[in-house]
Design brief:
Blueprint: H1 5-28, E1 38-41, E2 46-48, E3 62-65, H2 68-73, E4 77-78, H3 89-106, H4 113-120, H5 124-135, H6 139-156, H7 161-167, H8 173-184, H9 188-192, E5 199-207, E6 210-216, E7 221-227, H10 230-240, E8 245-248, H11 255-265, H12 281-290, E9 299-300, H13 301-307, H14 314-322, E10 335-336, H15 349-365
Parallel strand pairs: 2-4, 5-8, 9-10
Antiparallel strand pairs: 1-2, 1-3, 5-6, 6-7
Helix pairs in contact: 4-5, 6-7, 13-14
């Protein structure tokens, strides 16, 4: 059966267009966990991934293949630099870091960086950098965070503080008590008892963004909640601190309330509010970075992840923003999507849009050049 010439022409044309797209990817060294094609170089006799860092070949010497088997059947051998016949380097590194994380989670001793790096087959420096880029934490802080996770579980189960401390891998009471309060957000005893007897005062106010609840402990403000219904806001507060003693205070006696209102209505003033910040090590790292973003500017989730030393952890950063209990004071509303679009906000997208617009207007009214967006990842 003779194939029509028009069909042959269409096939050749389609293949040429596909090869043009593939060549463009090679020139840009486009990476992917599982590349949809491989390219081979006639003059070297090797085939590579499209993101290979080898010197770019001439187009006339390049052929494209779907699989390693096809390339090897044509007489090509795998490149030793990008190892296309093996798992991608990113996936191999992910497996190494996952294995190291399991080792840290199961071990009770202080992490030995030299031993972890040797087990992964990497240098001490390379392993440390790779671990932090993958998890957002150093091996030491990761191990400490996991110990505190175990500690929370033991305390919630009603264990004594001493037993929970040793069962979680803490061998020094002095070091444990020195950091436990900051990490748990309260004393171990209060945490075990779900905040029992922890004194929290709170007050309400009406703002142009709706109702606001400000709650504070002896340390500082522990919650700033926005909404439309005061009953719902109070219910949210009591759910966060189940056994704490939460007491409504008259607005006029709450100095912090006026400061929070001013922060909402006049965002360019900034604030020096004492904050009682409670969260995981990574969340606190993200929240601290958020407080350094000035009014009138925005940053993408990806760029913020890079800023806290965790490139590629945009989703984890977004979750940390969503867990922020201190609206406006920790300005998670200044984080937007990579394309500049305004995405989700714990207190409502409309409030986020209003806050950003208000900040830009305030900056303009003060005759300050409008701050540039730092959206690039």
């Amino acid at each position: 059966m003779k194939i029509p010439e028009t069909t042959l022409y269409q096939d050749v044309s389609s293949r040429a267009a596909q090869d043009a797209v593939r060549w463009s990817a090679v020139c840009r060294r486009t990476s992917a966990p599982t590349p949809s094609f491989l390219y081979a170089v006639r003059t070297t006799g090797v085939y590579c991934r499209p993101d290979c860092s080898a010197r770019q070949p001439l187009r006339k010497n390049v052929s494209f293949f779907e699989t390693c088997a096809e390339a090897e059947s044509a007489g090509y051998r795998p490149c030793k630099r990008c190892t296309p016949d093996q798992l991608p380097r990113s996936m191999r590194h992910a497996e190494l870091i996952t294995s190291a994380c399991r080792q840290l989670e199961e071990g009770d001793e202080e992490p030995n960086l030299e031993a972890l790096a040797a087990r992964a087959g990497l240098s001490r420096f390379h392993f440390h950098r790779l671990f932090k880029a993958t998890t957002g934490l150093t091996p030491k802080r990761y191990a400490l965070a996991k110990r505190y996770t175990r500690l929370r579980d033991h305390l919630r189960d009603g264990e004594t503080i001493t037993h929970a401390m040793y069962d979680s891998g803490f061998n020094s009471p002095s070091n444990f008590y020195a950091s436990a309060k900051n990490t748990l957000g309260m004393t171990p005893r209060h945490f075990r008892n779900h905040g029992e007897n922890l004194a929290i005062s709170f007050a309400f106010a009406s703002t142009t963004l709706g109702e606001v609840l400000v709650a504070y402990t002896a340390i500082g403000i522990c919650a700033i909640l926005l909404g439309v219904d005061r009953t719902e806001l109070e219910r949210d507060l009591r759910a966060r601190f189940k056994r704490a003693h939460c007491e409504l205070s008259p607005p006029e006696t709450t100095f912090s309330l006026g400061n929070v209102i001013a922060l909402i209505e006049l965002p360019t003033l900034g604030h020096k509010l004492p904050l009682d910040i409670r969260g995981t090590a990574f969340q606190q790292q993200v929240w601290q970075a958020l407080q350094k973003i000035p009014p009138g500017t925005t940053i993408s989730y990806g760029a913020l992840a890079t800023r806290v030393g965790s490139p590629g952890a945009a989703r984890a950063v977004a979750l940390a923003c969503a867990a922020n209990p201190l609206a406006v004071a920790i300005p998670c509303h200044r984080v937007v999507r990579g394309d500049g679009a305004i995405s989700g906000y714990r207190w409502g997208v409309e409030r986020k849009r209003a806050l950003l617009a208000r900040e830009k207007v305030a900056m303009h009214d003060q005759s300050v050049p409008e701050a540039q967006s730092v959206l690039s990842d």
